[in-house]
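User: Teach me something about this protein's shape.
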Amino acid sequence: MGAAISGRTQDKTGRRGALMRLRRFRSDRRGASLIEFSLVGFPFFLLLFGIIEVGLIFWTTLELENATDDVARMVRTGQAQSGNFDEARLKQEVCNRVTILSDCTTKLRIDVQSFPTAAAMNPPQPVDPGGNMQNNFSLDMGGPQDLVLFSSFYEWPLVSGLTGLGNMANGNRLIRASGAFRNEPFPES
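Assistant: First, the predicted structure itself:
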């Protein structure tokens, strides 16, 4: 009977010891900051990187729009036509006016089309139905007083796919800038 009593005492002592350790663990606050930071840190940094990425996309879009407008003016005034600009030269002119686009002359696509009327204008589709960049762009700068649509496309590589900003099959973002105008009555060469 003595052995049975000592077994119960050890059982109670074991439970008390476990309860004491649990209370000490619960009252110990040394690791609380680390746990709280791990819970809050990931969403915070995800949001921070998302904001930075959206800002870079807006900056890139603004630069591409300004550069496209500048080069489209060369077409509108007849400077590009009289200078016999080809696609490579138009790309180089756009790329000279931007700072943020990496590997600009390789990744930039340009489409220039002239139309008889505004109703006939049909903007190009830079991506196929599968979401991949196409390579069948036009280069028709038109003559004096022709209607022209000048478009630039750049495939922006996203840093993280977590932001959901990708609009292409490979997860990258297509940035587009366009300008529609009527050529000035420049003298034909």
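Now, about its shape. The first strand starts at residue 109 and ends at 115. The longest helix spans residues 32-76. If you'd like, I can walk through any region in more detail.
User: That's plenty for now, thanks!
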